[in-house]
């Protein structure tokens, strides 16, 4: 809540779980010498031991296909970005059946 996770993954697809996106094979930058990025280390610790993550579609702000991997990070959500409210399904008897 209140944070934006920018991550890189090799696999991303729509899940069999309705309303979710699956991500697999998270990619983290290689440590080069003595330079360690604390924000990426925090992200790496957050997903330590995770094989696959299921993300609710309404929580995803954006998905990009990139040519080159970048550095993942966690940042505070700022601005006026909000999910568009919409029901996952129409209840029976709502007149939209």
Your description of this structure?
The structure is a single chain. This protein has about 100 residues and is mainly β. The protein contains 1 helix and 5 strands. Strands 2-3-4 form a 3-stranded antiparallel sheet, with no helix packed on it. A two-stranded antiparallel sheet has the order 1-5. The longest helix is centred in the middle third of the chain and has 9 residues. About 5% of the residues are buried.
> What is the average of the pLDDT values?
77
Strand line-up across the major sheet? 2-3-4
Computed CA radius of gyration, to the nearest angstrom:
17 Å
What class do helices, strands and sheet pairing give? mainly beta
Strand-residue fraction?
Answer: 25-35%
Distance between the termini: 34 Å
Please tally the helical runs, counting DSSP H or I stretches of 4 or more residues.
Answer: 1
């Amino acid at each position: 809540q209140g944070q934006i996770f920018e991550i890189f993954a090799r696999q991303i697809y729509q899940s069999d779980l309705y309303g979710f996106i699956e991500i697999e094979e998270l990619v983290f930058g290689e440590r080069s010498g003595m330079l360690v990025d604390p924000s990426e280390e925090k992200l790496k610790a957050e997903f330590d031991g995770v094989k696959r993550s299921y993300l609710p579609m309404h929580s995803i702000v954006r998905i990009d296909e990139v040519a080159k991997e970048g550095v993942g990070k966690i940042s505070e959500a700022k601005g006026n970005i909000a999910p568009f409210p919409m029901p996952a399904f129409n209840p029976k008897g709502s007149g939209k059946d």
